[in-house]
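User: Modeling request: complex.
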Amino acid sequence: MAKGKVTFNEDICKGCALCTTVCPVNIVTMDTSKINIKGFHPAAVVEMDKCIGCANCATICPDYVITVERF
Amino acid sequence: MAVVFQKTKGLTDKETHYCPGCTHGIIHRLVAEVLEELDVLGETIGVAPVGCSVLAYDYFNCDMHEASHGRAPAVATGIKRVLPDKVVFSYQGDGDLASIGTAEIVHVAHRGEKITTIFVNNAIYGMTGGQMAPTTLIGQRATTAPLGRTVEHSGMPLRVSEMLATIDGAAFVERVSVDTPANIRKAKKAIKEAFQCQIDRKGFSIVEVLSTCPTNWGMTPIDSIKWLQDNLIPYYPLGNLRRPEGVK
Amino acid sequence: MAKVLMKGNEAIGAAAIKAGCKYFFGYPITPQNELPEYMSREMPKVGGVFLQAESEVAAINMVYGASGAGARVMTSSSSPGIALKQEGITYIAGAELPCVIVNIVRGGPGLGGIQPAQSDYNQVTRGGGNGDYKLLVYAPANLQEMVDLMQEAFDAADFYRNPVMMVGDGMIGQMMEPIEFKDSVSRFELPEKDWATTGTKGQRKPNIINSLALDPAELEKHNIKLQKKYDAMKANEVRYETYNMENAEVVIVAYGTTSRIVRNAINDLKEQNINVGLIRPITLWPFPEKAFDEVPAACKSLLSVEMSMGQMVDDIKIASNGRWPVSFYGRAGGMIPTPEAVMEKVKELIGGAK
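Assistant: Request completed. Predicted assembly structure:
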């Protein structure tokens, strides 16, 4: 059971990918299947069940894209 | 389900203009969160001079002054002298503070002006497109140091925090970095301590924050973090250089 | 109100405090040093702040900050120091902030000298900073007038939300004259400074003091707004004085202490039945163009007398619009024109003595 959940405000993301480098369970990726309103691939998490809610991704995000919840 | 991380009320809803991966955005967040947590947002006036962060008046959710290049500490002094009970900060880049604004930053420290300065050091002029700054490293290329900075031509990079830490009026001086979540959390702690130092009227406080500039360094955001770790941190060591007595 | 004998520079300080100025940021430079010195003594007594900045550049930026925080604030300097403040002044005008700047003019260019001069005329009337902005510029001829104008200066600055400059020369700053500090009622309706950055207290949107507008359409709109302000100043703030104008053969234009020397020359010439008039601008900007409608038909020529190399001549030509020839007599570098020399020049203009 996931301990945490992250939501991405996709259209704000600038595709910098810093969040993908700090996830302890390596579940943050860049969603290359789509482009957001700014023309970037937004960051995303597919395997949400592995999220531990540590907020590392949100901590390093320069654009406040990520909201983190913990159960 | 508890929200453990969300955008702070210390920032407006306006999306920033900063380049993808530029860590200005992180530093803005840390300052804004600290102001919110200290519950002083409504009592704060910020000053952002010319530089990439000149548009910070659109992002910080408090009263703001835009200031001319290098003069934010003087503007902040004017505000603080009129409103001594308010929280006043300046948010400046290295091209601004370490070059044209050197006299102003030295003198707010010298006067022990009770303001807080957030000094973003990315070793380059960002807004104007990548010129060499006083903090540019030896060998680092810039549009005005095309073959890389040399000691011969323009001396050694300037360590501002060490310089200011020799001034008694500088009650709190710390250099931090926003390259990893752990360092970001430490940076926030230092920023909070700096604002607390102001609120406790101990004197001038400054936090130098090592920051990236992917666009003008010519690297990806991820490589920029790596470059910062391998090059900036060794030359600009992290840590506290000065703290008011009796405060551990 | 009793009269008190005071030195010009100190009288400015006393008048500013009386006008409600609570903040002074300055820097040492001759010949205005007595003003910051006075403020360093007197401001603490009225709960105000005197701060000596690290430079004139810092001082004007402290004024920018203090004014943006809603304070009545001033700075003072002299010529080269005023040159250093120009960027700050255009920022203050661009951000629509009120303040008073005192310039005790000394001989130039460059380091120049420390004796009285009027050689900053172009800088103060044309604006020494970048962009389309103007300063309301007062040029008092004596200490009483200067003291009275200080109250006006702060009120006008607040009303127009624009920097106002008080121009004296070394003499005005250094001489002593009996002065009366009158209570005056402001002729301006001064609104609350709800635009000031005093902290939102969570009750309003943030106030922003700013002169940046990257969007050219926005910046143009802002310029048009500022221009309306300057047009209003032209319409309402022009001040001048005339003297002995009826059937004057020559009309001299002179301001500040030079106008007092010219007055003596006019009186002496009258005894030699040579009739000369005086137009004395009190505001250098807006320049009193309508004063030239009072020049009598008998007048054959206009003469600008200045302590400079003739910086006001152009404005006189513009205002007189070709109706009379315009000539110039002046001393520079701190030399003071004498009444005799002015009389000589007048006689030269009207083709020898009568």
